[in-house]
């Protein structure tokens, strides 16, 4: 017997998928850039004997044996040294553009509470640092100028605000204090919308505390008001929960927000897991570190090959892939990030047709690589080239589109294509063999472009 649906007062504001232009644009991004930048960049994962094993942006809360007693106070004074003299938003934006990023997500405020814009509602902002200038504005302007859509990361957790708490408020005093925190959060969000009206959305984080979860009536209204103030605004599933405390998906399993925001440093193995929802995957280069890390040498850091694989994995399942950068305290990307941005950009420059504005292709996954689709064109990005140079594609017998021509995207060279009976099976699937020329050598993943035509 089908489970009865729960009557919800604080479920999704937009049941079903959005069809407006802003959301359609989101679906077509393909590749994005995440930037984690704040006071933690000065520490770079290691400061005063404190060494964050991974997540360097969390260093304030690493309280291992070697941490001095006054470590948190030390961290809370680091902003007095935040003076990224080399910061040039235009340089970053141009790099992101060259990498092929179509949107950027920038940390306006991480868990430590430090605001990268001069917030009127806090005394712990870029204005109080020696640098003084509004960093969020520079990012928004420079990226917008490059045609890259801007999203603002915002942490609800705020270790600096004395009214912030993780446990649910119990006493009247606690409740009044937490209400102050909620009002502060609301004020900051409207401040960001007012200051930077070009932004396309918010990327929320730090929303897992019980106090926030219990504030579902407040957060519901807040989401409603933010959307009303900024038509087209995109908010992921990590902002709020329903009245039963269900996060990302409500008590009926329906998505909260415009896209699934839970794909963090992981990718779905099966397209079906996504239930047709929009989504993006945010990914670090080191194993789990979002802020600047001085020394990458203890870690495996992903190569451009790894990252392009993940990019195509994501786009083949209808998602966007967002690569994180953690600039240093002076305002420079690390040399490793510079190199990866360049390598990814070179690849995307050649193969972008298979990356942007594509959808999931309704074909069985194969071991060669990933399919993406645009209208009557299929793209197969090959990561594993078979030793016999023969790519066999299985189409379901129900396929209404059949392949008519195949070529190498990078050169336009047409490829021999034959329907084969070797694979003929009881299900009468259609098998198409594409032969790669022996003379075609590639050190990179490459794309086979397949034109299909209605065959029925
Ligand atoms: C959060 C932050 O704590 C972290 O510092 C970083 O900003 C990242 C993007 O977001 O970390 C999370 C949040 C959620 C999950 C994992 C890490 N999650 O749902 O698996």
UniProtKB/TrEMBL annotation:
The record places domain Glycoside hydrolase family 29 N-terminal at 9-353
Q: What class of enzyme is it?
A: hydrolase
Q: Which SMART domains match?
A: Alpha_L_fucos (SM00812)
Q: Which UniProt keywords apply?
A: Glycosidase, Hydrolase, Signal
Would you kindly state one Gene Ontology biological process term found in this protein's UniProt entry?
glycoside catabolic process
One GO MF term: alpha-L-fucosidase activity
The EC designation for this entry is 3.2.1.51
* Gene Ontology CC entries for this record: lysosome
- Is Signal tagged as a keyword? yes
Function comment: Alpha-L-fucosidase is responsible for hydrolyzing the alpha-1,6-linked fucose joined to the reducing-end N-acetylglucosamine of the carbohydrate moieties of glycoproteins.
Q: What protein family does this chain belong to?
A: Belongs to the glycosyl hydrolase 29 family.
User: Which PANTHER family is this protein grouped with?
Assistant: ALPHA-L-FUCOSIDASE, ALPHA-L-FUCOSIDASE-RELATED
The name this protein carries in UniProt is alpha-L-fucosidase
